[in-house]
Every structure is written in structure tokens, then in C-alpha cells.
Amino acid sequence: MVIAVISTPFSISSVDFRRRPSFRHFSVTRATASLSSPETSPSLQAAPHTVIRCKAAVAWEAGKPLVMEEVEVAPPQKNEVRIKILFTSLCHTDLYFWEAKGQTPLFPRIFGHEAGGIVESVGEGVTDLQPGDHVLPIFTGECGYCRHCHSEESNMCDLLRINTERGGMIHDGESRFSIDGKPIHHFLGTSTFSEYTVVHSGQVAKINPDAPLDKVCIVSCGLSTGLGAVLNVAKPKKGQSVAIFGLGAVGLAAAEGARIAGAGRVIGVDLNPKRFEEAKKFGVTEFVNPKEHDKQVQQVIAEMTDGGVDRSVECTGSVQAMIQAFECVHDGWGVAVLVGVPSKDDAFKTHPINFLNERTLKGTFFGNYKPKTDIPGIVEKYMNKELELDKFITHAVPFSEINKAFDYMLKGECIRCIITMGA
Ligand SMILES: NC(=O)c1ccc[n+]([C@@H]2O[C@H](COP(=O)([O-])OP(=O)(O)OC[C@H]3O[C@@H](n4cnc5c(N)ncnc54)[C@H](O)[C@@H]3O)[C@@H](O)[C@H]2O)c1
Ligand SMILES: [Zn+2]
Ligand SMILES: [Zn+2]
């Protein structure tokens, strides 16, 4: 709820890292979203010079419960939009950076990157979004102008690619959040654990306003990553076998992709047998727990499938599982896709003969989806009942109890917990 609106002047910095559009690459066949002209277009509606005060769950210290605070949210600046968040969910990446193990801690910070909301106001230069639009903020973006955005093969935007270390907005490096004038860091440019947030317009997907935001908010991250790893990268043919390593939210989203692709056998591999029961609801029909076998997992799978699976998708972050996922695909045509994020010092080791024997290894970021161009289509798949989302949502809490969502995830009890703002 907006508690008070204060009128404050704000200045627009001249610092902007956005490149001017290069039309050299304009002849792409895939229709891609592009933002408003970066420097010159007037906005549909000028940003009001107002600061919003609202509730946000602030992480003051690594691993300590979030604290509900009243924060000031500055108006959106150039190429930014301010969004009223209605629903958000918790993903492992929030948990990982909140725990801050093995990274440079950045606190105080407002986490959150899977969410759905409504545009409240837009900053200068934003012409593709307007107040009232239903949107999903996305942790990675699509500027529409760089070489990656012009390539139909890439979603690794030069300007708005995920940056876990940035605590301010790209436009001026400053935070739009503060408490009594003291800045609070952003997270992934989304910071959705706040009733209002400011996001670069290139990280905002405009979706069908009829879509239920309490369901489709999960499309913002993990769901799309696993789904796209199968549908866009592994691309199993109808009836082909798929092995999925890691049956967390991302692996289960890969299973949903396998179901949509019409895959035949879907084999789930996980060290935690508790995951197997849940995975049956996602069409995983056979299970391998590496701990229960003396043989290597590759060999177990080769024996189960007469030489190897047609496709495999690794969703664990374990380099051993990555090697197993590659070596368990059939020679001649097998394709393995890596999704999990490895540790800093990991090295992938396999014999080169595995490649010569016509196995293919690929990796994917965010399921190869372009955030603005492709995410609205995933929401449409849900609306058309092609995609099942409800089975991913195992828990729900009001915003005031957001710390419970962290407990559920820490205990490994939930796939996705929906957090209702304003409650
Ligand atoms: N590439 C991307 O764009 C992208 C995006 C989001 C998440 N991720 C990564 O995807 C991975 C999965 O995310 P999640 O949220 O589903 O995680 P999760 O922790 O919920 O699930 C991982 C599962 O893998 C299992 N596992 C771990 N090591 C294993 C091994 N050696 N063999 C078999 N199973 C093993 C665990 O028991 C767990 O069930 C993470 O590494 C995450 O960082 C990547
Ligand atoms: Zn770009
Ligand atoms: Zn995520």
C-alpha cells in the first residue's frame, strides 16, 4: 500500500551505457523486441516526480531473516519503469546471494527476481510500456540493439545480461531504494521483495493482462530456464528418451519441457530420493540414485537404454553430474545440455573420443529465451493450457511472512512458494 507520496525533484544523469542502435544487423528473421529509441523518443507518459513509500523486505546481513521496512522508492529514470509488485516467489538464486557464501557480500539489499506486477509509471524514453501494463520483471534483459539481441541464436544481451554484483541501476549506478536517505542495494535489477520496484524497461516482459499473476510470476526465472533447455536447446524428437539430472525446480521444468515435446522415457537422476515422488507428477517415469549403484551413472543409464539416452539435461550445478550427463547420451546423435551453475574452480573433464563419437554438448542461459520477445509467449502457452504451472506451486505465504518461504526452501520442502504482496 502507498503510505505517502512526496514530491521530490530528480535529475537525469547523462551517464547511459546503452549503445545507439546499429541497423547493420537488422535483417533478423526472429522477431525481437526492441526498446524505445534510446536517446530521443519522448515517453508516452512522463514519470511523475514522486517518491513512493511502501513496504519492502530488507536483507540487512547475510543469512539473517529479512526485516519488513518502510522504504522510499524513487521515480523511474531514463529507460526505467516503476512496477507495483503483486506476487513474487523465492528462487534458489535469492537464497544463494542472501547466504553470501563464497561471494562478495552486498548489504543491505532487497532480493527477489521472480514476480508479476503492474506498471505504475514509466521514465523518460520508455515507449513500449505504459502504466497499467501487466508485466514480469526478468533478471536478465534484452536491449534490442546489441549484437546478441540482433542474433536469433543468442539471449546474452551486452547491456542487460545478468549482473549479480551490481547494486544500483545501470543508468547512473545509483539505487532507487532508500531508508531515511540511506541507499539500499538492488538485486539483479529486479528487487521484487518490495511492494514497488524500479526495473530497466529492457528487463520487463509485457504479458497478457488476463494471465493470473499469482501463477505466471514463476515464469520469470527457473521455470523458463528448464523449459527452454529442453524445448530450445535439447530439442528431443517425439518419443525420444531424456535423462534429467537434478530434480529441483529447474529439473522439473525440464521435465515439463520433455512432456510438451512428447518425449518418451524420462529418466530422473538425483542424489536425494525424496525428489522422486514429486517428480512422478511431472512425468518422470524412471529414477536413478547414483548412491545406490556401484557402477558409474553413465553405465547404469547406457544399460537401461540400450547404449544411452537421446537427450540429457543437467540441472544440478555439480560438475560430476555434468560429465555424467554428457557421457550418458547415445553416440551418433545424443545431445547433452548443461544448465547448472558450477563452482568457481570446477573443470569439465571427458575423453575427446566422446565428441568424435558424435555426442554433442551444449549449455544454456535462461533456456535461450529472450526476455521481452519470448516470455509473453510462454505465458500464452499457459493460457492455452499447453503448459502446466500449477503443479510447481507447492506453498504460499503473505508478504509479512516472507521468511517462512526461506525456511521452506532451506528445508528442501518446496518447489515454489508464492508470496502475496500487501498481505
Ligand atoms: N543456466 C541458467 O540460466 C540457470 C538459471 C537458473 C538456475 N540455474 C542453475 O540450475 C541448477 C538447478 O537449480 P534448482 O533451483 O533446480 O536447484 P535445486 O537445488 O532445487 O535442485 C538441484 C537438485 O540436484 C540434485 N543434485 C545435486 N548434485 C547432484 C548430483 N551430483 N547428481 C544428481 N543430482 C544431484 C540435488 O539433490 C537437487 O535435488 C542450479 O545450479 C542453478 O544455479 C541455471
Ligand atoms: Zn542487447
Ligand atoms: Zn531464479
From TrEMBL:
Record's keyword terms, sorted: Cytoplasm, Metal-binding, NAD, Oxidoreductase, Zinc
Subcellular locations according to the entry: Cytoplasm
UniProt keyword Acetylation present: no
GO MF term (any one): zinc ion binding
SUPFAM superfamilies membership: GroES-like, NAD(P)-binding Rossmann-fold domains
GO biological process: formaldehyde catabolic process
Cofactor: Zn(2+)
EC number(s) per entry: 1.1.1.1
InterPro entries, per database record: ADH-like_C (IPR013149), ADH-like_N (IPR013154), ADH_Zn_CS (IPR002328), GroES-like_sf (IPR011032), NAD(P)-bd_dom_sf (IPR036291)
Keyword hit for Cytoplasm: yes
Domain of life: Eukaryota
One GO term describing the cellular component: cytosol
Similarity remark: Belongs to the zinc-containing alcohol dehydrogenase family.
PANTHER family reported in the protein's UniProt record: ALCOHOL DEHYDROGENASE (PTHR43880), ALCOHOL DEHYDROGENASE CLASS-P (PTHR43880:SF26)
Subunit structure comment from the entry: Homodimer.
Protein name per UniProt: alcohol dehydrogenase
Gene it is expressed from: ADH1
